[in-house]
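Hi team,

As requested, here is the filled-out complex form for the N6-methyladenosine-5'-monophosphate run. I kept the field names the same as last time so the parser does not choke. Let me know if anything looks off before we queue the next batch.

— J.
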Amino acid sequence: MDLGMREWCHAIPKIELHAHLNGSIRDSTLLELAKGLGEKGVIVFEDVKHVIMKNGRSLPECFQLFDLYHILTTDHETVTRITKEVVEDFAAENVVYLELRTTPKKNEAKGMTKRSYMKAVIDGLRSVDTVDVAFINSSRENCLESAVSSSTHGKIERKRIFIRLLLSIDRRETTEAAMETIDLAREMKDFGVVGIDLSGNPVIGQWETFLPALKHAKDLGLPITIHCGEVPNRKEIQAMLDFFPQRMGHVCCLEDEEWRRLKSLKIPVEICLTSNVRTERVPSVEFHHFVDLYKAQHPLVLCTDDPGLFSTSLSNEYYLVAVTFGLNKGDMLQLARKAIEHVFADNGVKQYLTEIFEDAQRRLGLQNMHHIP
Ligand SMILES: CNc1ncnc2c1ncn2[C@@H]1O[C@H](COP(=O)(O)O)[C@@H](O)[C@H]1O
Ligand SMILES: [Zn+2]
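And here is what came back:
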């Protein structure tokens, strides 16, 4: 097969570990929801339309926009709908494993609790009908028939995507609310919840507020990923490194000493190129810390963060790396495959993903490539 680099980045199997549900909504859906609320007089559609379609966004603008998104997606049916669409969109670009994160939300006016919000998300996963969705832990989902037989021997023609969920703590939340999220995550382990995320506006909230909940999660054996260093806050960055989570997102504003610690601790990094450029955390892809970490063979994984908000896709993030840093097709496939090591799902799922990548290597014509470790 002779594919161009863009087609190659689309065709290879990919693993997405850092995507926020509400940041992944299709523009067309946002516009439709805004129109509906405009007609009801809840918002002024013309004002909102302009904001949704805008391309460049500063970091503070992103969080204003999320507040708007949350007005648009505030009932259970809409949460179910956006979940279904987001899964379909990732599957369409050959994402084979998606760790989707979202902040469980309470909304008394809509009769919504954190638990019912998550039930609406699960309903969304269940309602996907264009691809096979495997989302319950592998002991329950009967998923481990050979990955190869499903894709090459024609037994199952449909695409399959594995979904796991991370529950996010928003930095605006209290310790008590954060604790509630951890307890919900524990309760939902059998429904594909595999870990915890700390996110939200990085200039809001104190590390000490979330620490008890994060410690509680750690005690329960729930893996944790933390948005770290989106703004230069030395004390917090150091405390986050001390906490030693399983993964970190962004890590943009680190000082030399903190880079050294991150590297010596080997904490895997979720790299979000377009997000960091759009929000002006880095001047351009060329100057992104990806290249330093990649050269240092630091564990990392390419992610989108908010593909809807930043008008990107995981394939596009791979393509940006290939063209900016001159990586070849083999390098890109290897980079994609390395992500298996950092998923929060169990070994059964990891084995399945390994088979998917071995099969892709055969199918896409890289038989003669050196063995990918
Ligand atoms: C741009 N970089 C970022 N930095 C920090 N937090 C971010 C983020 N992008 C998204 N979120 C977090 O994810 C929420 C939206 O998805 P959910 O409602 O949870 O599905 C945002 O409200 C914010 O808390
Ligand atoms: Zn994020």
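Two things worth flagging: Residues 18, 20, 199, 227, 249, 305 surround zinc ion (ligand 2) (CB under 6 Å). Confidence is low (pLDDT under 50) at residues 138-154.

Thanks,
J.
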